[in-house]
Each structure stands twice: as structure tokens, then as C-alpha cells.
Amino acid sequence: MAKKIVETPLMKQYMAMKEKHPDAVLLFRVGDFYETFSEDAIAASEILGITLTRRANGSAQFVELAGFPHHALDTYLPKLVRAGKRVAICEQLEDPKTTKKLVKRGITELVTPGVSINDTLLNNRENNFLAALNFTKHNVGVAFLDISTGEFLAAEGSTDYIEKLLANFAPKEVLVERGKKKLIEESFAEHYLAFELDDWVFTDDAAMDRLLKQFETNSLKGFGIHAMPAAVVAAGAILHYLDITQHTQISHITSIARVEEEKAVRLDRFTVRNLELVSTMSEDGKSLLDVIDRTVSPMGARLLRRWVLFPLKDAREINRRLDIVEYFFRQPEEREALKDALSQIGDLERLIAKVSAGRVNPRELVQLRHALSMIEPIRKICVDSAQPALAAIGEQLNPCTGIAERIGREILPDPPTALNRGPVINDGVDAELDELREIAYKGKDYLLKLQQRESALTGIPSLKVAYNNVFGYYIEVTNTHRDKVPAEWIRKQTLVNAERYITQELKEYEEKILGAQDRIAIIEQRIYSALVHDLCAYIPAILLDAQMIARLDVFSSFTRVALENRYNRPVVDDSLELSIVEGRHPVIEKELPAGEPYITNTVNLANNGTQIMMITGPNMSGKSALLRQTALNVLLAQIGSFVAAESAHIGVVDKIFTRVGASDNISLGESTFMVEMNEAASILNNMSERSLILFDELGRGTSTYDGISIAWAIVEHIHEHGSAHPKTLFATHYHELNEMEKSFSRVVNFNVSVREIDGKVVFLRKLARGGSEHSFGIHVAKLAGMPQSIVKRADEVLAHLEKVNRDSDDRVAKNLAGVADGAEGVQLSFFQLDDPVLAQLRDEILDIDINNLTPMAALNKLHDIKTILTGR
Question: pLDDT value at position 313?
């Protein structure tokens, strides 16, 4: 704090709370408002758009102040957390009416971007992961936890592998040992919100003790992470962080799983981005996930996202998934019944997390009961299917009938969202509660009977019984009948035209009613708490239900997408073949205007056959779409989905690499060409025989001949290096690379067909055997709306250049052929200096001693060069 702000008792209390979490924004409850002070107030006013004020704080001092009504917490808290702030919520722990001293206050919750079970902070279709990184001398350990679902995962490996995991899990917050925050920035390209913990948290003993305490086991062998010490430390750090942030009711975190690198296809961050798997590079675009997500539950949506980012490599497991999709594909009645039941489940995972934390409200309990009631019909569909993989899922489902029936028996069908906001517990659950309700809620009948009885006894027809906050219940009699009032009535108030009285009976009834309300609240709280406590015993079973429901939801989604979009089942095995017959781009075909068909293409690749498809063709002809649709269909097959093709044979791919598009990283000072080379290097250093490699227009970031040279060398390396022979699609505008087919047996030329009719270009978008010789760039410029004068002039210049360079191109082709044949003495020269003027110019430049050249001498030399060129 820059200023001393402890002059008043309230501010002393505030400072005591602030010292507990100095790096968090402290929301300090004062009456009906949450207030922030000093630097917190300045930050909150900017993020929330609320008014920043100043108030006096002791002699000649002031403090900044910004606040909002307590009932607006759900509106403002998410904004602070999404801005990357940690937020400590300080509540009043006693009723201000019951004390004359300063109200007791305490921090009840610390909310951070990575730790929250608050619905307003979470996207129900995405996980909200907290990560911890443990940097060691040999590798990096990482752990991921979504406290809102209980998913807990750990891994360790190289920096490159951990970077891939971080990119795919996209944690909202990353924990690291104090002093090592800079290591995150140095090791990984993406930026992450980091928080440092004390070094003792990142020790073997502290981590092991905390994990064993959580899981109540003697070792971690049952979880498969016991031989991963770096990962164990990272996982332990996450649990310590939950303790620090006062998230101690975490019985729903029942296990931890190992992220198994060998089971999933490697998709680096370039590939995830370039293929637009879960997000797009343009605001109005669609990702693959957008197209194939027909899930009807939040758990299913989250699982589908995970599957897209972690496709399988195990052909048997892939085919088990495909078997289930095919079953529902052919069984419309079961398919629709399953969809109907799944759509009523809701977010079972996050509901049970709230039960564990003791923060589930009555309405959510009713939703939980309804969700559990849907488990039995879903289980029956699975078990009766006679489909082995589906039946195995059904056998793991548990309707938890006992607790579901108890919820229905004890909780009203339509309760309020919180206790004390109306009745929650059903009639017949507790005899005392029923009796108290009879007193409290049926008082009007009693008072009416009392009024009628007293009116008859006294002969006062206008007598009435009423209530106010000052006197409680009273009997009011007009002055006309004042002489009829019995002597035992006690006068409490005189009005202009009437008198108000109380009786012993009314006084006793009032005490009974007021006591009943308080007692009702106590009994309801007791019954409700007992129910939630007993429900905790069902957490493991309900979490397993949620996992199985999520899988069924994804399979159901795959089936509906296949039916809607005419997808077909692929053949998936362990061969090295890749054949996609009449394939389509699953995203682009959905974006086409109504009635316009997508032009299909067939791709056949094999390690020892057509290993490298060299694809040429003009801009806008569909080369990029062809590359992407091949990768997307392979990925669809390996997550267990049908594919956008007439048929497909997919030999399991272990890695998908892409070098697509010019994605400059200017903010890091990297040019287009540097990004290209970084991505290409990553591919060449990690490819294997089961890899699928996509290169799209490699070398655009540098000069033409540099680009040709590098592209040639890369293709040659992929073809010749070792025995891997990874399957490759290489789209290029360098027509010179068509020469490679003559010298490299597994390089085959293809082109995307274009037809020129009456000077106009028609893009056929159909793949054909053989190379292409023209790029039709000027025609594309015309289509883009370029002024006619520019298009005409470009045609004239192109005609002149083609005439001048035709002979030169022949020489280039011969030289490239010489390079491919490995002919000795053949020099790859793109600049022919047969012209004596160019030769003289070359000699003049080579003779310059640049190190000793003065500015004046440089100008004179430039004049000499100009004279050689112009002859003047």
C-alpha cells in the first residue's frame, strides 16, 4: 500500500484482512455493499466501470473507494476474475443489529481464474483448469485440475511435450515455484497467468503427504503416477494451493490420472491452430468443434473438446467407439430415446462438485434427483443393445435409487434457490416441523376464529385483530364500542377514533409464532445439511455416472452429425495406408451457399507408394482446403467419428503436422519466414513413419529462389531420410518442384484443375494427375475487384516477362534435374551472367572494399555503377 490507511477501526479491520491476501482484490462487505479501497479501488473501477471516489481517512489523509451492491456480486465477480484478478471475499460474520461494536468480518472465499465452482464464472461447455508446473534439471512436471468437475491429471516430459499439453488444456491459471515465473515465459510461446508459491510446496515430501491425505491411500501406485516424481510434485502443489485459497471441501477429487503420451495423436499448437480444431482465426469463422458438436449435456461438450485435441492411436479402441456410433446410426428409436434422456441430465459433474463443497442449493438438489432418475432408462438402452462396448458402459451406470428417492421424499418439488427464502423440506418428514408450520403458516385461520369469537362475546361487530412491528398482534375497537371492552384487556395505544388492546392469549400466540419461524429455520437447516452430508457418500458413483453419460452424449452427437452431413464409417487399422475416397472439408461444406455442392476429391497415400503428393494449382483453386480436409477426416476417424467422405481407409496416424499459411508473430519479433522455418524444423525433427505432414505454400516468406531451394531440400529430406517415409501433402505455387517426380520415386505430381474459357478462369477444384504450369494470379486479382487498368497492365508485363524468361526457365529446370540426379559439377544457378554488362557490374561490386568506404566514395561508386548500366 502506498499510503497509510489504518486510522479508523474499520480500516484497521480492512488492513488485517488485506494482509492475508495482499495480491488479491479484497471485496469488503460493509452493510449492503462490497467496498474496495486504495489500489484495489482503482483497479476495480477500471475493470468494472464503477465510480471511483475519495473519502477522508484520519487527519489530512484520504483513501480511494469504489463499491457495488452486494446483490450484484454475480455480475461483477466474473469481470474481475476474467481480467486475471484473484478476488478475496470478506463477509460480515454477524448481524449488525445484534452488536454495538464493530461487526466481525472474515474472508469466506478466495476466487481465482483457475479455482472456482461459481456458475457465473464458468463456461459449461469448457473445462476450467488450474495447472502447476515443476521445473527440474531433467524435465518438467505438470498437473491439471478442474475443481468444478474433479478432473485431476498429471504428466511429465520435455518442454516441447508440456507446451503441447498446456496449449490443449488451456489452463486459466498456472502455479510455479517462487522465482521461476520467468521460466514460463522463456519456455513456452503462449502467455499464461502465473502465480508463485513458496519453494517448500514444491518438495517431494510435501507433495506426497498432501496427495496421500487427499486420496486416503498408502501410495500412488494405483493411479499410475508413482514413477513420475516431477508430476507428483506438481500435483501436490495444486492441492496445497486449494488449501491456501480456502477450498478445503474437495471430497469430489477422488483420483488422479496420468496423461498418457503414447495413447494420443501428437497435435502441436501449430496444427491445432492451423486446422482450426476448437477455435478459428477469423471472428466469423467456424471451427471443426462447432460443426461436430451436437452434444446435449455440458459433460458431453467438455469431453468432445478433449477428444478432438487428443485423438486416439489405438485402432481397437477407435473401432469400439465406431461400433457404438454405428449401432445408434442404425437404431433410430434407441437413438432418439437416448437423446431425450441425455438432454434432461444437466451438468451432473459440476452439481456433485457443489455437493462436495457444501454449496449445493435446494433447487440444484431437485435437478440432481431428476438427473439420477434418467440414469435407469439410459442404462436399459445400453444393456439391452447387445452391443458389447455399449453394454459395458451401461453396466457401469448406477441410478443411486436410494438417495434419489430420499431427495424426492424430503425436498419440495419446486423449492426456492436458498434456505430461509421459503419452505424447502416436504411435509411428513419431521413431526415437529409440521406442527410449527401449522402454527406459523395457518395463523390467519386462528386469528379469524379469535376475532369472530371475541366479537360474539363482547357484542362488538367492528372488532378486528391486526399486527404491526411496534406492538405485534392487537385488537382494535372503535370509540363507539369502547364501553364494551372487557376489563382484562390491556390498552396499548389510543387513536383518534379507536383504541388498541392486547390480551394474554394474543401475547402467548405471538411468542409461539415468532418462535416457530426461528425453529422452522433451524429444523430445515438440520434436515437439509444431513441430506447433503449423506449424499457425499454417493460422489464416486455419481462421478462415474457423469463420465459414462458424457461418453454416450459424444457418441450420440457423432451419430447425429453423421446423419445430418452424410458421413460414413471409415476403416481404421494399423496399416500404413491412407485412402479417402471423395472426401469433403467438414467445415467449408457447411459454409457454402444453399444448393451449392462441395467438390469432392480422392486422396491415396502410402509410405511405399505415393508418399508425397506434390500439388500445384492457382491461388483460390482449393489446394489448402484439400490439405486441411485430409487431416480433418483422419482426425475425425481417430476420435471415433464417421468421416466426410464416401469411404475411407485410415492406417492409424501418430502425429499430424501442418505448415499452413503465413502466420507472422510480429509481437515476438518473428517474421513470416522465421515462423515458417520454426514450424518446418519442428516437423522434420519429430516425424515418424505414421506421421501425416501437410505443407502449404512453404517458402512464401522469402525470395522466390530461396523458397524453391528450401522447399526442394525439405521434400528431398522427407523422401530420402531414413526408412520412415511419412505420408506428405505438399501444396506449392513453385511449379519448378514438379521436376522432383522425375527423380524421386515416391513423389507424385497432382494439380487442382482450372479451365480457361474465353479468357476467364473457371476453378474446377478437382484433383488431377500431373503438374500445373500457371498460377493465374492476375485472374484472381481481377476476381478480387482490382481496377481494370491495373489488370490490363499486369497482363502486358506478364507476357513480356514470360517471353524474356522462357529460356531462363529451361535452364533452371535442367539445373534442378541435375541437382536431383546428383550430377557432379552441376551448379544450381538462377542468375545467368552471360550479359557482358551484368558481368562488368558484378566485377565492379566485388572489387568494393566496404569496410574502408567513405560516404563520399560510396556516392562516387554508385555513380560509376549507374554509368555502367545506362551507358552515360
Answer: 95
Cβ neighbours for 870, distance < 8 A, ≥ 6 positions apart: none
Query: 3-state DSSP call for residue 53?
Result: strand
Domain end call among 259, 281, 298: 259
Amino acid at 705: Y
CA angle 308, 311, 312 (to 5 degrees): 155
- Contact (CB, 8 A) for 582 and 600: yes
Q: CA–CA separation, 325 vs 335, rounded Å?
A: 10
Same domain for 247 and 101: no
Question: Contact, 551 vs 303, CB < 8 A?
Answer: yes
Q: Which of 225, 183, 229, 224 is nearest to 202 (CA)?
A: 229
The last residue of one of the domains, among 211, 226, 259, is: 259
Which residue type is seen at 597? Answer: P
CA distance 200 to 207: 9
Residue 637 has pLDDT above 60, yes or no: yes
Q: What CATH number is given to the structural domain containing 25? A: 3.40.1170.10
User: Which residues pair with residue 99 across a beta bridge?
Assistant: none
**Looking at per-residue confidence, does 455 or 783 come out higher?**
455
| pLDDT at site 780 | 58
Average per-residue pLDDT in the chain? 86
Q: Which has the minimum average pLDDT: 377-381, 570-574, 748-752?
A: 748-752
Query: If you average pLDDT over residues 214-237, what whole number do you get?
Result: 93
pTM of the entire predicted model:
0.81
- Alpha carbon separation from 640 to 25, 288, 590, 650 (Å, rounded): 45, 14, 21, 12
Dihedral class, residue 38 (left if φ above 0, else alpha if ψ from -120 to 50, else beta)? left
Mean pLDDT of 263-285: 88
pLDDT digits (tens, 9 = 90+) for 91-111: 988 877 777 788 889 888 899
- Contact (Cβ atoms closer than 8 angstroms) between residue 20 and residue 88: yes
Q: Quick one: 51 and 130 in the same domain?
A: no
What is the distance, to the nearest Å, from the Cα of residue 335 to the centroid of all Cα atoms in its chain?
Answer: 28
The per-residue DSSP string of 747-790 comes to: EEEEEEEEEEETTEEEEEEEEEES------HHHHHHHTT--HHH
